Amino acid sequence: MSKYCATEDNSIRIEEMNPTFLFTWKGTRTEAEEAYHCHDIVELAFVMSGTGKYRIEGQVYEVGEGDLLLFKPGIHHQALYVPEAEIPATEFFVGFCDVQLPGREPGDVPLPGGGYILHTSGELRQKIFRICSSMEAESAVCWQGRYHMLKAYLMQLLLLVLKEQSPPPQAMQGYSFDSVNKKYVVEQIVSYFEDHYSDKISLDTIAENMYLSPFYISKIFKSETGDTPIRHLINIRLERARELLLQGREMSVQEVAAAVGYDDSVHLLHVPGNLIE
Q1: Closest CA to 128 of 84, 94, 99, 104
Q2: Residue 119: strand pairing partners
Q3: What does each C-alpha distance from 155 to 14, 166, 238 come to in angstroms?
Q4: How confident is the prediction along the chain (277 residues), in pLDDT tens digits per residue?
Q5: CA 233/CA 257 separation, integer angstroms
Q6: What is the spatial distance between Cα 247 and Cα 155, in angstroms, rounded to a whole number?
Q7: DSSP 183
């Protein structure tokens, strides 16, 4: 298979990456697409949450959160509705054209392995989720530079896809670079809990700030710690409440509850040590 990015200095020729941005669309799959169809443009879809299925060139594929699908011109596809899915797929679509990569046909943007679906995880998934969220926000605002902002985000998406197929870069001698992975995400959430346990915290707020879906955060947090994010936050709050009570300060139960982020003292009935009767 020829290398699309090969040049004398083994880098992607950016000047040849000049796509025309066409549209974005985001939605949750509640019914199948009406027709099994193809386009004369390139369509990219990113599953932001949930699960679903696609019929692509006569074969049905299961897709889930973090999957990126790329349909080149002439590729027949159809999004299917999956009524038994616990969480229906929420997808973000980007349409574009005028892509010409070295040594490839117009509109031919390859995925690793030559298929239609790229399964992402870790840092790559987080970056794509962040770009899609930014494109969604930019699409909702009408201003003079909107098209160019959306095109810039599209360029980032395409370069991330192409980067996945490039040889891993060699690290500079004497330096090490740690990638953003599940452990890092969990550490950031725990650190946030410890610093902000007295604030009003929701899983949706954390997910929005980290450009990840609530479902994905819950899944990786439980896989790394054995506990849910909210349960971990509750444990931190109860431990802080216990520390305040042991300090012997003249604080009412309601004041202690407020100090650890609760509106009602009923949350402190099970503080470790049975300090509250």
Answers
A1: 94
A2: 67
A3: 9, 16, 47
A4: 333 333 334 345 555 578 999 999 999 999 999 999 999 999 999 999 999 999 999 999 999 999 999 999 999 999 999 999 999 999 999 999 998 887 788 888 888 888 999 999 988 999 999 999 999 999 988 888 899 999 999 999 999 998 887 766 554 443 333 334 678 888 888 888 888 888 888 888 888 777 778 888 888 888 888 888 988 888 888 888 887 777 766 777 778 778 878 776 665 555 444 344 3
A5: 14
A6: 56
A7: H
